[in-house]
Amino acid sequence: MSASSVRPKAGPSLLPAHPTLTSVWCRMGWKELRQNTPLLGIFFAGLLTSLAISTLAGQLFQVAPSDIADFWFGTIYVFIPVFSLAIGVFIFAPEKENRTSQFLGILPMRSGQIVFIKLVIGLLTVAIFIFLGVLLQRFGQIFVGESSTATIANETAAFERSLTPSSLFGQWQWQATPVVSCITLTMECYCWGAICSLVCKRAIFAAVLAGTCFALASWGFPTAIGAALAQRSTDGPPSRRLFSDSFYTIFLISKIATYAAMGLGLAHLGSRWLGHSPNNEFPDWLGRVAAKPRERIESSGDTSWGVSADRPFINSRIYSSLIWQSVRQFGTTFFFTLLGAAPFLFGSVLIAATVSEFQIDHLFVYSCLAVVLVVIPLIASMFVFIVDHQDRNYRFFQQHREFGRKLWLARLLPAALVTLVCGLLLSMGLVVLGWQLLTASETALVFRFALFPAIVVFCAFAIGQFNSMFLRSGVFVVVSVIVMSGILFAGICGLCFLDPTLVAFLLPVPLAMLAITWWRAPHLLAESNPMANLVLPWLSLGIVVVVSVTALSWFRVASVPQTDFSLEKHLSSYVALDESRNQRDAQVNPIFERAILLRDAANEMVATEAVGEAYNLRLFTWPTPDYARSFDIENPAPLRQFVSRNQDSLKLLALANEQPATSPPVLDPRSRSRRVEQIARISLLISAQATLAQWDGDLERALGYWLQLKRFTEQYDVESTNALLGLLRWSEFPGQSPEFIKQAIKAATITPDQWCTQTEYLTQSRRLDLANWYEGLISGQSVLDPPLGIQFNYGARENKKQSFLLIPWELERSKRWTFLTLEELSFQRSQRRGLILEGSMPDHVLNLDSSLYDTYQAAAVSVHYPNHRDYDEFFSIRDNERWGDFIYMLRQIQTYHYVRVRMALNGWKLEYGQYPDQLAALVPDYFESLPLDVLYGIEFAYSPTGLDNKVCVSGSGWKSRRGPDQQEWEVIKLVYESMIDSGHPFLLPWSMARKPTLASCNVMDEPNIETFKCYDYSGPGLSTVGHNLQDYELPSIDSNDD
Amino acid sequence: MNPVIQIKHVTRRFGNKVALDNISLDVPRGCVFALLGENGAGKTTAIRNLLGLDRVSAGTIEVLGMNPQKHGTAVRRQVGYVPDTPALYDWMTVSEAGWFTAGFYADDFLPNFSRLCEQFELPRSQKIKTLSKGGRAKVVLALAMAHEPELLIMDEPTSGLDTLVRRKFLESMIDVAAAGRTVLLSSHQIPEVERVADLVAIIHEGHLMVCDHLENLKREIERWVVSFDGTELNLPPFEAEVISHAGPQRKRQQLIVRNPAPDALWRLRDHPGISEVEVHTPTLEEIFVAFLSNSPDAGGRPINDGLRSPADQSSGGSIT
Fold first, then answer.
1. A112 and A222 share a domain?
2. Residues B186, B44: contact at Cβ < 8 Å?
3. Taking burial as the number of CB atoms within 10 A of a residue's CB, which of A136, A369, A621, A653 is the most buried?
4. Which residues of chain A have a CB within 8 Å of the CB of B69?
């Protein structure tokens, strides 16, 4: 037989025949890669699966591509360090588990050399992850989408401007931060995994546990210490410290020290690894401790522990021996692992808390989550069966005829005790810290539920002991337990979000897990009929899960009254509403009629994002030279591009102008996303047409287009902003006259009737969506719903935190409730419409009480109407979507007010050659009453001569959680940094049209104007600051009181 | 000729437990050396020290003229080792295991491994995890022999193998020794070892009880069966090294003696009350059991005046 015939196909073909270092590298490289193949396979399979599921769910539920991309990035960023840790652990732990380190130990090569080769090859594997992470850091935005990229760029630009260090070194740090953080985190996970797998005596899971703790600690310690020390040398807000030069210096030194320590540790441990392989005949002290329990059982003399008449099931001596054995054998390893690693983990948490970068209750909750999701299941799996699998203890117990329920029970009792203690500690910690709601997310809701920690711990424990029956590899136990616990946690969160009492429907599942192990444990340990031992438990568990979910769904669905929301019914009402609205609008303005005709023409048009992106600028900015240049009519590049691409559609628009439509078309009833896209395309066309009209000098026609564009868009979004911006630009257009502006302001006044109609239009659209869900055959969405769970993320961007897992039955219930809510709101509005006179807009919100929002998922809102002092509208917002709609409405009103004031200022300047000294001068020429801030009910901040510097606007409403009594109100610190030339006035709504944060905003207090009078100010409520933000200390309540 | 293995006053302690206690022995070249002892006697510890996988507490070891603790890599390059529990990568095929290991040895490793696979009838394309226990043992043996080592160390190589495989396995040891190389064999299968071993060393609880050529042991050690016909059941004094004495105070007693005086047997036969003394040549297993059963911890007791017990000997030997 020749050598070539023996050489395997899997190995490299061009290998040297001599035992050179190259040949060793080639062979070791092949072995390591082959050994890591399953892990890499799991990584990429998991990654692709999660991406595919998220994409599919996103398509089904019309999630914005940028949100899907965000989920991708999040998934990948979690996968990369986790799998780097796994790769590090996989370098040594499998060799220990399979005892192949003996094989390596007798090879004629030094231990250090082999370890070095293994580490380098593992590093090359990790380099794939690092490359992927760096690639995403640098170029990941291209997946998000252009418009989102532009938004992100706009948002981060100001942040970068204020935080980027001025020095060259600082600039380099700023640019290199994401890449360096990606590389360091991945490398640390890898190195700690390798070190812990070298140190840990027992198997993979201990190495994973210890590696996770040390990686977190080595990541958190330098950050925390750096931030703490940088705090002494850097003034300004806390976030600034993380970007200061001193922080970077400390951080880098800490990292270098960490890597030096890890390198020395690896070199030392690696040189001793194979040179001192364990001696089974003469084990070390830990091995001797582990061997004692078995000796004790063997020396007990009772080797026939079966249950019989004279041998009762409860035999304290047997149980004491078995429990003692399990505690000593398994608990020793765990105890020392946790003892060694936990101080580092929690030490970093405490240090981070002390530097006040994070709030301690946040950290505690996240630590609790880590304990619940990782540690508890691992305790359960370790105590119960996994070590028995690995050490082949089955045979011992089989020989002694003790392989059944007593063994299972003896394993379970200490694990349950430890779990119980952990659960109690978690609950007590939550109580002691006085956990309160910070956000409206499901996690916060869940933690308000007192029994939540105990339930989750119990379920995680059941999962751990159930999985340990089947899985014999430590790494698979770790991965499966964490994944299943995560799914279970998400399920419990979802249920608690709906109704905490529903968790009772979930409890049969962990109970069934315990019962099944009780039932099958003797058979599993006896290793009889392995197929039945595998199939029967999972089949039984599946039945229990299906029954539980069915019962839960039936209960939920049956608790809501039946509602007829078939598509036909609501489609007809939708069409009727659309027709009536069209007819009414057609009488007001014939242009709308033509635009309706255009809908079909634009249906198949390929919309370009260029115009939307170009217009997607901040509304509350005044024109600057740069801005004017970009929208100079002599250089309308985006519009020219848009017009050239859509010339055919524009021709249709012109055709529509000449030939009015005879029957108004209906927006596509099949899909909400299609309607939204239609609206977007039509909006783009109308805005383009309006701009073209301005070029032609037909300002009246242009105004009509802008107004129609605003009326056409149904939500506060890019199109609506574009329309308002268009109105502003229109008022500043050459050839404008004050009279014309006055007419435009009057025309741009939104009436309550229009407001209600618009909302009703939106309501009808929602009804159609509900009908669509019900009529699955039309859209096909219901057919494609995943059978077990889906990601309910309808209003993705604004309601991201409200996403939770829902089953299809739950969707059904949600539809019914939403439908009933819509009906109720429609009734309220129809009643209200009769009471409100024309022109009486609600000028601001009187009371916005969301303190009970998280409890009842409803907020009470009172709206004040200036023309009806005796009438305050009151209505409740029941769910998140309605809340979002309400906020949209407020934003709309606020934006309208702002735009109208701006237009009036432009008109005033045209009329008198300068801006008025006070806004009150605009009354009565331009307004009957001055528009007010929608949230505070006061005039806008205004300064006719503009502001040279940045402006700090302060308000109230944020509830401080750091005060001694936790009732302290903290001043809102909003830094308004607009591009304002000195020749322009300054105009700013108090509330900035921002969405109030649910949990932090109870009663909307008016801003305390007196507070700010002590500052250098040219108008009420304003304070000017220096050019350099670093030099400015933001105002606080204490300083104001002084 | 220098011995292949030279152990001088080696002691290895694990905490308070002494695994090897002042062991000294030499193993000549070209022989099959059997290292016998019960579980935990210290055989594996001694082998690990020979390979440089452990460090002795006292004493010196030389393997092929090198100190394995200092030159472990060079020693392992010229030594083949078959461990008691073969540790292989289960996911590799037989040929992959050979190809992988060949990277660490000279370029004749792969042809030799191929030849050995054919000799052992190993399916080269089969994964190791699908092989039987005997098949795995063959793979380990082929890997250990493929670089034609000067010294082949085998720690319990035949445990768990069936009779045919075991016999073939041991026969290959003879071939190795015939080729001028040395085999150090540690085994519980004493009848099998007896067939192939040239030299035997017995270790008990870290002490070297005996180390000698097998034929010398068989020539020097005799098994006497003494039958009494009277009421007096005590043995008279005689000049011999009594290794073990079974059934004292009984009518039929068995003695394992070494180097008896020429008249010792006649003095026993002529003693009143002794009807008969049968003389047998003991098997290696009987010798092994005799050495172990007479150790102080095994319940042995000193016999009459004039008897010499093995404990009187110094624990060490040198055979060249």
1. yes
2. yes
3. A653
4. none
